[in-house]
Specification:
- Chains A, B: Belongs to the UDP-glycosyltransferase family.
- Chains A, B: It is found in: Endoplasmic reticulum membrane; Membrane.
- Chains A, B: It is a single-pass membrane protein.
- Chains A, B: It is an enzyme of class 2 (transferase).
- The structure is a homodimer.
- Chain A contains 18 helices and 13 strands.
- The first copy, chain A, has about 500 residues and is of the alpha/beta class.
- Chain A folds into two domains: about 200 residues, Rossmann fold; about 160 residues, Glycogen Phosphorylase B (Rossmann fold, 3-Layer(aba) Sandwich), CATH 3.40.50.2000.
- In chain A, the strands form two sheets. In chain A, strands 3-2-1-4-5-6-7 form a seven-stranded parallel beta sheet, sandwiched between helices. A six-stranded parallel beta sheet of chain A has the order 10-9-8-11-12-13, sandwiched between helices.
- In chain A, helix 10 links the parallel strand 8 and strand 9.
- In chain A, helix 2 packs across helix 16.
- The longest helix of chain A has about 40 residues.
- At the A-B interface, helix 1, helix 2, helix 8, helix 15 and helix 16 of A face helix 1, helix 2, helix 8, helix 15 and helix 16 of B.
Chain lengths: ~500, ~500
């Protein structure tokens, strides 16, 4: 009887299964402060800022008066602040990125000093930007008065994190990863170096003993500044990344940039369609490198003259006389839309996260030329999955490039593996932009996400690893052992003495 | 120019932001094998089986001919197998659950022997069920021929997991947790005992040194059978659970049973409405305990006679003459629907996961009477959040029960905290049933979820903790130190000798 009643209850219940709970008050809106970083970080942050604005939230983006990519949008307002540098300085710094491509020809010492000087200039610039915002009392006071619900920011430079802390606002971080395992430290996320490769090691999740030694040595742990982040929007997923532990406040939004698709302009569409059965090759070295040294460019032009595909190349450098007919040079490339086109056969990329995920999303095999930062690790992950070929920008020749392109285009295993990877990447219960917006709104609605914050943050190193407990238990074992030994010794002695006495008697 | 182009590109792009990627082939269906466990585990598994069937998948549920709750459904077919026990034996075993309520009055030795004998009977029964399925060659052959895409099962008894392994099918597990940290071991999920409380310790995530010692001692690790699971559907979320690391193949579906709502029958609805401003109290001790010893029941009847609320009680025991007018006894309680009613003021529960999440979902404060299993830990989590009061079924009196009910109903802090908890629990990007169905389909589509499987599974204990690497590095340090010391000693001796010689000269 009981069982029948239960079954009936359950069967009835499924008539109404569609009526799920509505967790959000309809029409609820709040206000969001966005403190972005210049460069490719902006892409994902801007996508969320725009979408939040489109949904009716009041979105304020705080940007320096001078920047490379940061700028106004359709659905948010910007608030600029003065900085002590000019656009020219930014452009000069950016031009230095091109130097990476020729640095092999420089003597080692000069190469190192160039790198250090570039790095120092970059850090100085970031410091100047941060100080210009954080010490701008008028602006900070203005922002305080706005009564924001949350801050969305890139934590790679902790300006936004610091501002959120000052304004006592919950923070949503968006990032790919932080160097030195700082992201793991700041989220209290376990990060065993035995199978989680460290950045810049080019290790995979299956490591030899030698590789694991390197991995452990890279395991530096610094700073605690970022622990207060409420939600971490991580620009990766496990189609590219090696599987590893996550914390409850981590949300994976890899490929957030792929969902935004537009038709190509008529001119570009015609050029693409004209490629016939051979299709097109898309070539871009990312938002920070649009040019290259002349002798490098010559290699690419030569190689492109030798392939049947048409090539669309983001290139702002010097244009030679003999540009092959199948090459179209563009100042800005609608990269995602081109990769999404059925004619796309290969993607030549520097291996930045955005480009890599656009390639995965649309299933286009890659020839990869890593330049700096996490690109070396990204391309290694792709190569280990058999969906692309890695070349060195320093040693590249027209022949190696043509061979690599022919391999990824004509060896069908690359396309097949890429399509499998693409199917897995695209098969997610919720699109990453939706997810990023949802969790940003969550932080605004609940003034943070305290229920996702692990108690590990309140433990010191000894406690976290239970070393105090283990020490205590060892101490007990030691005491018990010593006491037992002592007892045994005493008993033994007494026995001996008795035996001796008896003998003597 | 570049920047303007970029900004324009981006602004344009948002016109089409609605057009997200469609990852699933429309109309795709597959076939799913379900191997459930009897008891409360069935609730969640059945919900997914029904919903999968409703969506057009071929769902086959394999159940023993005799069971407590398992049975047919609207959207799936069942396949039964004979077992060497009868319904009567199951009922007897179930009746033993009631004995827990009086076990305090028994002498200690008898109490322990009763528990062991119950446990042994339970294990024997599970073994008999497992063998009846796994050694039923005809049935196994039949299932093999069905060409299923995946298996959905409760891994608490690994019958389904073993069957999946035998049939070489990817498995989706649904569970609350496994004892002895087995779930963490089988998923290679970090599980530091410093802040993650072990089951049956009643610890929270903030532990004193004494509690942490207990926690470490509970940290037994056994068996590797379950490592092959593709997806782990976990029946919890962080509104109740303390935040801790997750692995990529873990999907949180706590509260999967709350979404299914139905109108009350007319009779029940009238009884509920008739409660006026005082509202109702919902009382159930779960699917396995519907009765109680007479002297306990008397306490409850007495207490209910002293409160102004109306009480709906799932009770199949002996009915006394003087049942108070405000009490309605029912053989089966539409628990979730009653808790979802606006008149629900309090929930008296044993603290099973399903009931707890239904209470959280609908924001009803609780009086909790844990009986066995994970119930003690569940109620402790609730009490630590200030949303309920824990009583012991052994010491309970009419007065303590009335006091507890008055506290959770009239002290507004309980209701307020419960509503906050409820808001957080219900504020999720996707409802748990949707999520469970999505990932079950994912495993069917991709024949597993290998991209979510961490490389940690392939490491031994020494490697996982990098102890080999640390040993190697220590060895190097030792060698370098010894070599340096040796050099210094040699130099020192030579110097001394020279000085001696000079003196002698």
């Amino acid at each position: 009887m009981k069982r029948v009643a239960f079954v009936r209850c359950f069967m009835l219940s499924f008539a109404a299964v569609g009526a799920t709970i509505q967790p959000r008050e309809p029409g609820w809106t709040g206000s969001l402060l966005v403190v972005p970083m210049d460069g490719s970080h902006w892409t994902g942050v801007k996508a969320v800022a725009e979408e939040m604005g489109r949904r009716g939230h009041k979105v304020t983006v705080v940007i320096p008066e001078v920047s490379v990519l940061l700028g106004p949008g359709k659905h948010y307002t910007t608030r600029t602040f003065p900085v002590p540098y000019r656009k020219q300085q930014l452009d000069e710094l950016q031009a230095r990125n091109v130097e990476v491509m020729e640095s092999k020809q420089l003597p080692l010492l000069e190469k190192i000093s160039t790198r250090i000087s570039s790095m120092r200039k970059f850090v100085e610039l970031q410091r100047a930007t941060a100080e210009s915002l954080l010490f701008n009392q008028e602006l900070v006071d203005f922002l305080r008065k706005q009564d924001f619900d949350a801050v969305l920011t890139s934590p790679a430079v902790p300006t936004g994190a610091t501002l959120a802390y000052n304004l006592s606002l919950p923070a949503v971080y968006m990032l790919r990863a932080l160097p030195c395992g700082l992201d793991s430290t700041a989220t209290a996320c376990p990060n065993p170096p035995s199978y989680i490769p460290r950045f810049f090691t080019h290790n995979s999740d299956r490591m030899s003993f030698r590789q694991r030694v390197l991995n452990v040595l890279r395991d530096v742990r610094v700073a605690e500044v970022l622990r207060s982040g409420a939600i971490w929007l991580l620009r990766y997923d496990f189609s590219l990344e090696f599987p590893k532990p996550l914390m409850p406040n981590m949300v994976l939004i890899g490929g957030i940039n792929c969902a935004v698709k537009n038709p190509l302009t008529k001119e570009v569409e015609e050029f693409v369609k004209g490629s016939g059965e051979h299709g097109i090759v898309v070539f871009s070295l990312g938002s920070l490198v649009s040019s290259m040294p002349k002798e490098k460019a010559t290699i690419f032009f030569k190689a492109f003259g030798m392939i049947p595909q048409r090539v669309l190349w983001r290139y702002t450098g010097e244009i030679p006389d003999n540009v092959p007919e199948n090459v179209k040079l563009m100042k800005w490339l609608p990269q995602n839309d081109l990769l999404g086109h059925s004619k796309a056969k290969a993607f030549i990329t520097h291996g930045g996260t955005h480009g890599i995920y656009e390639g995965i999303c649309h299933g286009v095999p890659m020839v990869m030329l890593p330049l700096f930062g996490d690109q070396g690790d990204n391309v290694h992950r792709m190569a280990s999955r058999g969906v692309g070929v890695v070349l060195s920008i320093h040693d590249i020749t027209a022949e190696t490039l043509v061979n690599a392109l022919n391999t990824v285009i004509n060896d069908s295993s690359y396309k097949q593996k890429m399509e499998k990877l693409s199917a897995i990447h695209n098969d997610r219960p919720m699109q990453p932009l939706e997810l990023a917006v949802y969790w940003t709104e969550f932080v605004m609605r609940h003034k943070g996400a305290d229920h996702l914050r692990p108690a590990a943050h309140e433990l010191n190193w000894l406690q976290y690893h239970s070393l105090d407990v283990i020490g205590f238990l060892l101490l007990i074992v030691l005491i018990v052992t010593l006491a037992t030994l002592k007892c045994c010794t005493l008993c033994w002695r007494r026995c001996c003495r008795k035996a001796q006495k008896r003998k003597e008697d």
